[in-house]
């Protein structure tokens, strides 16, 4: 892999702010971001990416290429948590396998946003409908994970099944704040089109990278605080957090190549497939699978897979796609 691709990605101000946050924790600095602000940054990023995606979708319309990309996104979101569960079951108990499989079956919106920033930096085009693909990929893993959990609870008469009702499953899958806000912003972007985007661009376009830098600074602080928990997890899980994203990305690339996605769309599909959730799924698993240990699935996704993807995964996936697509 060309070292320039790695440097081009890492020497990006928002990425460097992520590592600055980690460094602050390692050096025991008192640097912190007041707690209401990270939530605000999350809301800002979700609105910005949803609005922009909706605007791009209004321009491109819905054709066969869009259906192909969205269909492949849904397929990956369904198969990844299923085969991940059976791989994890060889080493972990059922409940931790469910939670971890759901975590790696869902996606990270911030990883996706960082990937978009990378494509824009190197001048590679992508379809705005990939934002819709991202929102479609967030929920299936939650549903599949909760169905697995419901099946496990049903086998165990001593478990309280009240948290795994269909109502709770669908509420967590489709009305969790991230999915709801993304879908809403995407819809607003579609119906308001170019006029709407032009009126919102000074806030949600021009200032986007600045807010992303603030958000990644906070993520660096949080990830570094979690990294000490990794000592307890063992080589299998740490290896899983790096190898599984690459494996998932390779499957997505193969599908994208076979179905002739564009280079930019295939890269984003691979990046989404290789990312792991650290917000929506952990929240859902904590509510509905309390038997699973958050000390396993949260540090793996946040302290290993997320930093790996935004530093080395992005240039690696792009290198492979660029080589395949030519």
UniProtKB/TrEMBL annotation:
Domain of life: Bacteria
Xref: Pfam families: Sbt_1 (PF05982)
Xref: InterPro entries: Sbt_1
Protein's name in the database: Sodium-dependent bicarbonate transporter
Naturally occurring in which organism (per UniProt): Malaciobacter pacificus
